[in-house]
Structure formats: C-alpha cells, structure tokens
Amino acid sequence: MRHRPPEQSLFSGIYGLVLASALVAALDATGEKADPVRTRCG
C-alpha cells in the first residue's frame, strides 16, 4: 500500500466525520426509540 498524500488523508478523515454525523442524524430522525440514552436524559 502506497503512502497517501496529506490532503487525501485529511479528506478521508473529514469524510468519515461527516458520514458519522450523518448517521447519527439519521438515527435521531427515526425516533427516540433508537437512542435510549437520549430518552433517559429527557
């Protein structure tokens, strides 16, 4: 595996972060049943 340039590595990190936040937003949109921690907090 070749060494990736810093720009690509940074982009990959940002893409992963955006993807994770989008996943959390999608789970949050489906309803509180999918997120027990939030339901307990009120």
User: Strand fraction band?
Assistant: under 5%
Q: Portion of residues in helices?
A: over 70%
What structural class results from the helix and strand content?
Answer: mainly alpha
- Helix/strand order, N-terminal first: HH
Low-confidence stretches: none
Measured between the Cα atoms of the first and last residue, the distance is 48 Å
What best-fitting shape do the alpha-carbon axes yield?
rod-shaped
Biggest sheet record: none
Indicate the mean pLDDT: 77
**Gyration radius from CA atoms, angstroms:** 16 Å
Overall strand count? 0
Brief description of this entry?
With 42 residues, the chain is mostly helical. The chain contains 2 helices and no strands.
What does this structure look like?
The chain is an all-alpha fold. Helix content is 74%, strand content 0%. It contains 2 helices and no strands. It has helices at residues 6-30, 36-41. It is rod-shaped. It starts with 5 loop residues before the first helix and ends with a helix. The model has no long low-confidence stretch (mean pLDDT 77).
Give the topology.
Layout: H1 6-30, H2 36-41
Fill in the keyword field for this structure.
42 residues, mainly alpha, rod-shaped
